[in-house]
Amino acid sequence: MGKKILRVDMESGKLEYEEVSEEYRTLGGRGLTSKIISDEVPADCHPMGPNNKLVLAPGIVTGTSAPSSGRLSVGGKSPLTGGIKESNVGSRFAQTMAKLGLKAVVIQGKSDGYKMLKLDKDGGELLDASPWVGMGLYKAYEELYQKFGDKVDICSVGITAEMSGVNSGICFNDIDGLSSRYAGRGGLGAVMASRGLKFVVLDGKNAPGVEIKDKELFEKGRKKLAKAIQEHDVTKDGGALPSFGTAVLINIVNEAGGLPHRNFSSGKEDMAEMVSGEKKAEMIKQLGGERPHVCSPGCIIRCSEVWTKEGGKDPVGVLEYESVWALGPNCGIYDLEIIGELNRACNDLGLDTIEMGNTIAVAMEGGMLEFGDGEGALELMEEIRKGTYKGRMLIHGTEFVGKALGVHRVPTVKGQAMPAYDPRSIKGIGVTYATTTMGADHTAGYTIAPEILGTGGKIDPLEKDKVDISQALQRSTAVIDSSGYCLFTAFPVLDIPEGLEGMVETVAGVLGEDITVEDLDGIGKQILDIEREFNKRAGFTEKDDRLPEFMRTEELPPHDVVFDVEDGELDKVHEG
Amino acid sequence: MGKKILRVDMESGKLEYEEVSEEYRTLGGRGLTSKIISDEVPADCHPMGPNNKLVLAPGIVTGTSAPSSGRLSVGGKSPLTGGIKESNVGSRFAQTMAKLGLKAVVIQGKSDGYKMLKLDKDGGELLDASPWVGMGLYKAYEELYQKFGDKVDICSVGITAEMSGVNSGICFNDIDGLSSRYAGRGGLGAVMASRGLKFVVLDGKNAPGVEIKDKELFEKGRKKLAKAIQEHDVTKDGGALPSFGTAVLINIVNEAGGLPHRNFSSGKEDMAEMVSGEKKAEMIKQLGGERPHVCSPGCIIRCSEVWTKEGGKDPVGVLEYESVWALGPNCGIYDLEIIGELNRACNDLGLDTIEMGNTIAVAMEGGMLEFGDGEGALELMEEIRKGTYKGRMLIHGTEFVGKALGVHRVPTVKGQAMPAYDPRSIKGIGVTYATTTMGADHTAGYTIAPEILGTGGKIDPLEKDKVDISQALQRSTAVIDSSGYCLFTAFPVLDIPEGLEGMVETVAGVLGEDITVEDLDGIGKQILDIEREFNKRAGFTEKDDRLPEFMRTEELPPHDVVFDVEDGELDKVHEG
A63: closest CA among A101, A98, A26? Predict the structure, then answer.
């Protein structure tokens, strides 16, 4: 039985299961969400108006036994960037959705009042979601698990999305049922809420599972990939990611002079050590959390964790590198317990941590509070929860608060705030920030792998010549984001050729298509071309492929460098 | 003695008088501000960052005895639109500046603390302006007139500009010294404040005056133009403008179904009559104000007035058509006394009334208050004055508050809110809104003249074929905005050929250049090309030359029409 596309018209309340067209048959994840958005959403529509849509699509191998492949893509026109958006998340939800035979769910129209979309193997229905409006997500998830049993998977938007905050992510459950996994970037939570959709609840009981056309090929590939993951220093048992999680990067990037402190004012500070991955792993032991941990069943990398308060109380879920940085050093805050509370508040309210940390940092620069004022930052989160105007000033992203407070040092590209790598001292990631279709996004072409970690061969982060590496990684990332594999499989795959072969064989096996490693660059380019064409129709030009002015003129200590990759070079990324 | 360009470096505090280059010699007003901004400001700079500049330039004939020519252009990169901006104002300030031999003042850099630029015939200096920071402008002007005597002219920015509000205009004195004349549009007040400049004070005592190269030609032209103004029905003594001011349009445009009510939800309502120009003229008599009145000496049209409270108290200055509409019908408010108070608050705080009225209307649509709640609107102005976060949500323009409250019916083009004509039922003005370099701006190509008033031949407002008329008017407007003449001279000039000849002769006379009526279209196109080229470098495309989605899909009563001029037609406006 092939997968179906479910179309939910929120206005009429009608659910329709559509056959998958030949054109969409080999697509999944990002490749599929971007194609559907490009085909169905007018590029010049208002992102919160009646014509935007939201698309959820698991990756191609998601829901199979392929390792570390519990990924889901969420697509729409972003109210943060004004361009196309794919936001990617790891959650069991993705696997359940695939096993239920859903290739994609398309949400369109707008309901009266908030609804919950409940799906199981027999179909679905829209239920009233009003009892959970205005409630924090941790509590809402508890109630929903009580109501539907602890086996369901939940996708949701929080209080800030209800307030149309364009920094609202879409939240998914982790394997403990915590509201801690986010398709965070680009404000798609606001789009979901603007359709009137509050929750998607999946009951995977007796789900048929994912059809694999060529089981032998799939199995062969799966083994090769699993072996590569288990052999690579970054991903193997006892390796960097399982041991310390993504926050292992805090010390490494700080040491390289590329960890932004106090709204991108310095690239290195001794205090970073206080919030490092190593320190965090130690504290998790003391506090009673859990590490390592998986975000979805079948992950053999296990970068995740459960951060808690003393005695295992108030479990947050994972504190990712990006979140620790955004809510920590970038705000001059070097206290993991406060960062944990801020992260919990973001998860509870429905906010993307990267954007929120940048927003707080710009608010600090604009004088709303002092750099380093962790208690003040926590109070801001309560202002948001209460829906005060001060709070509402903080839910629309970093550019918005920059405008509100007259700050011109605003670290955004295409309206989306930068992740935890300063592009002045790590120039390849600056090329990616500038030129990806997504707005400033490290995951779109993660040059940190070669520039900082030496994966696929070490290159100098301060060297300007990064067009080729960013191009190659942007294309391969578009493929990985479509496959359903976690981006972290790229570490072993970049260094171990058999790993890459195995990855491709699993995808070919599921689809029953003849795909080889040589095809990947072209497939990636196709996806990016669709996204770039959408952005062009939305009014984007090469002028949108630029870093903010202050990064081109203001030197970053300790290397005292500006971002000096020429515009003409940036424009070459999408050539060829 | 020829004019000079004064360059003020706010950082060093240095004032330099520069000779006028041959390239700039024949330019004035908008033609000059746009050229200097285009030459000196990087199009991709942050409008509030260190590289933006502010340019003030009187028109070519400003400061002479040419009738109705007391106009000044203010230019910069707009923080509201992100593109080039010329904002035009009528004030004696313009005349004094020209008489002081200043072709332009260029403000660059940023001072510590707020300064006042004081200029007289012997030169200038920067003084401390901190005593007036945080003070309403009516009171500040009173104090400055006490300090410097009642003959000076004053340019200023208000409290909202100090708060970086990108809907901050630049205020100028009327002939009674009231802070009521505004270069309001596009947020250039925020740019001026971001340079650290709070006031420009001009002492015109013994100013040398404006040199006229060919006095005979000038005098010949002046008489022809004055005669045309005194003959035309709109501008003559007892004509529409002197009798009722610009608000004479309220009844006329409402009758045509083009007066937007309640955030562009209806084009005609009976209640409009309660805020008509006729009603206002009657009330001015009762309340003790003055009508007609001039905005600057030598104006023979006299559309202005002094609106006051009962007994002539709390004089506001003029209540323009656009302001009455924006703060009135567009907010569902049909009470002139409340509108007068709202207008006074805008003048006092330093806000553009058109943008502010739209902002309040969108705030009403977003649920911040009810349509028609005049008292609530007045309370919002006090929130702004106090600098609360609620208030600060309202000083950054209409798109900002739309985003803040999740409203998608936001009537803006290029980020600037629409004036008092609904483009669905008056399509030519829609073509101008869409395609002008300025963002939605009626003055940039005032098709209302032929579409509603029949000036230059009557054409049907509902007819779609408006590319040619908008193009012609955008070009001629660019010329008028450079000449120093008030745009209202266009009424007689469009209908009476000798008037136009006379206008051109005065300009040719001042410059000593051989300019004829046939040259005007080309000169206008040159100015627009410079502006369009700047906007292109700033990242604008034809996608920015579009009206908002809801106006293309939502029918406007009573004609039940959408804006249906095709995109391809809009793109033709700047061809040829």
Answer: A98
